[in-house]
Hints:
CATH superfamily of the largest domain: K homology (KH) domain
Number of helices: 5
Radius of gyration: 19 Å
Amino acid sequence: MTTQSSSEQPADNSLAEIESLVGQIIRHGGFNLKSTVRKFAAADQDTGAAGIVVDFEGPDSDLLLEKNAALLDALEYVVLKAVRVRDDLYGRISFDCKDWRQVRAEELKLTALMAARQAIESGSPFSLTPMNARERRIVHLALRDEAGVKTMSEGSGPARKVVIYPVTTPS
């Protein structure tokens, strides 16, 4: 008999619960969507962890992506809280539609680089708009090796944002 490691078993249990709850929400909400839950081995560049993606497609896909994917984010939040996903798995599970997460990540990286240049040129901190933890992390990682700037998250709750500070070198 083959047994799963203790870290794989809860992930697989969560995966089945997530799939079931997402299906119920789609049906009872009257959405014309299809969801696919898949595990992928492509390691996260920092943690080396595999991930799980719940991907949506169908005629109602655009509803999920309106207002910067507010409904997609809300659906992800509600499902993961309802399933009571362990904290160590929480960041490795994401909901996506039409490659929104990848497109948004590229947009955030470009914004971060432009803001860093602005902070360096002006010599003043540059505040980005408030964003969720996942998006703030993308900005921090995009600028971690950028010479001349440092980043910090400031504020609390939904108003938390990344501020990019120019780093002055001693003369």
